[in-house]
Amino acid sequence: MDIIKKNMALASSGAGKVRNRAPADVQITAEQLVYDANQRMLEKPQQPAVREVITDPEELAQYRSKRRKELEDSIRSHRYNVQLYLTYAKFEEEQKEFDRARSVLERGLDVDYKDTRMWNRYVTMELRNKFVNRARNVLDRVVTLLPRHNQFWYKYAWLEEAVGNLNNARGVFERWMRWEPEDKAWITYIKFEVRAGETDRARAIYERFLAARPTQDGYLRYAKWEERHDQLALARRVYERALDELHADERDDALFTAFAEFEARCGEMERARAIFKLAMSALPPALTRDVQTRFVQFEKQHGGREGIESAMLERRREEYAKAVEENALDYDAWFDWARMEEAGGDVPRIREVYERAIAAVPPVKEKRYWRRYIYLWLSYAVFEELGAADVGRAREVYATCLKLVPHKKFTFAKVWVMAAHLEVRQGDIGKARRLLGRALGVCPKPKLFKEYIDLEARLGEVERVRLLYTKYLQFCPHDVDVWVAFAQLETELGEPERARAIFALGVDQPVLDRPEVLWQAFIDFETEAGDADRCRELYNRLLDRTNHVRAFLDFARFEATHGASFENSRAVLKRAEALFKETGQKEERALVLRELLEVEQSAAAAEGVASTAALRQAEALQPTAVKQRRPIVGQDGTAAGFEEFYDYVFPEERKATGLKLLEKARLWKAKLKAQQAAKAKAEAATAAGDGGAESRKRPRSPADADMGKEDVEE
């Protein structure tokens, strides 16, 4: 009462009211509540079941009555729960009340006769308690009602065989086979007949089995069964029937491998080898890998070198076939496959591979995609000419290839050239000329011109060669090599005026890819002809067009050697030195001055004197190489450090650039070297005696001290 009064007081005062009706931050769902309740029930320790000990018949009868009432009530509440019937029947079986157990199971079967658990419990109960006839009756009922449930057929046949009633067991199997069950059922029937010693019956059942279910596994089982019973001829016949009666989609490499291994076990090596080859030709490429492996192993065990090589070829052939099947444009795989077949020497197979390869035309008409593809055609043509000795087919290959190539977009000079060479080897020069002429008309290329010119040159057709060179120069007037080759041809033919005219026409072209090569060839031609005036005129014309340092140096060397005039060479170099001094090209100027020094040295040697005024002047003009540093500027304009480089300082720049200290250092070094040389000479003169030793130990002279002081000041 006090508690009730206290709660009423709280309620009247408002202290128990909920003031914040907002949802809580953490929400609890109904599922979470149920889950927590179940977890607590699982965590709760289970009480061990109480074991009752019954010692009185009346108490036992009371227990049975109580338990039966509970089970009956459960069944009455849940009539379609099969587990309740099974539990009830098990209870009655434990009480040895078999009639009651059968009654319960029959009641359950009335509810659902398709439930296999009920039938299994029924049969198991009868067999466990050795009611064989009752079990037979139950099995007969169930196989009649549920003929597609094989477990009852197995039990029925096993029961009849176990009690020794073979005829009844055979009758059960016959009833079963009319339903055409799974393979395992037929094999079980066959094994039953074998255990009964009826081999002929077992063979007849195998025949019925293959008629009802013609599968590869069935044939293999039948053949192996015959082999186990030493019926090799019958086993071979089964394998042959499998190859004849099964469709190509119904057989795979396992059948061929088993057949070949069977023949190997029988000692028929040739038959086994033929079966392996048949498998590799009949099966699709995806299924022949295991056959290849088995064939290689077979050849290693039973074959010779040729057999092993043949097996390896078949294996590699399969690999190439798979590669080109995945990517038909894999021309490297086609090349490898074709070379392998060429090594084998099978001409029809080689042609088949080449035909399949050239059928894989690149889908894009760009030359870079066609390069490898064209070499397939060339290899095919070479094989037809040399390998198969069929010139007609080789011509057809070249002609088909030339029709296939889109010459308006790009062409392949090698195809034209090789086709022409084929005609030359066959002695048909006219046809070769027509091919090359057609090539130059459709798609002129430098290589075609060169090959055509080479062909005519070997044939000695000079006029044709000249005409081709003319056409070549009209096609490529900027190509220096053509001008040089044409001029060399005329020189070799003893036509210097024609060669000179060609050179003159070439150097007058407005655009040349390498003009220095043509000028040098022209100058060399005139030099070999011994015409110094023409060479000098060419050098002057060249220097009018370019101020390259190499042109000046070559001109000066020419004057010093072929012109035999050091004065002209000196004039050329001084002209170059003045030009580069004016333009500020220090490296070129340094090269010119070095060449001038060499010319003066050669001139002094020619005059037979050690030095001349011109040589001393040339020495004085030589620049000094000085190592300097300059800043490195990055791409973003920021400083990136310093780099060292060599710069040339010329005599007129030394005073202006403040290098007086460097000049004094050089003079001091020269003076020091002269004093050291004089000292060494004096020591050599007084090498013997104490005087020499005293002279070596004497102190430094005042002159030496003054020189050191001067060096320090400098």
From TrEMBL:
GO biological process, one term: spliceosomal complex assembly
Listed Gene3D superfamilies: Tetratricopeptide repeat domain
Keywords: mRNA processing, mRNA splicing, Nucleus, Repeat
Biased composition (Low complexity): 679-688
GO cellular component: post-mRNA release spliceosomal complex; precatalytic spliceosome; Prp19 complex; U2-type catalytic step 2 spliceosome
Domain of life: Eukaryota
The Pre-mRNA-splicing factor Syf1/CRNKL1-like C-terminal HAT-repeats domain, residue ranges: 387-538
Subcellular location: Nucleus
InterPro entries reported in the protein's UniProt record: HAT, HAT_PRP39_C, HAT_Syf1_CNRKL1_C, Syf1-like, TPR-like_helical_dom_sf
Name of the protein this chain belongs to: Pre-mRNA-splicing factor Syf1/CRNKL1-like C-terminal HAT-repeats domain-containing protein
Organism field: Cafeteria roenbergensis
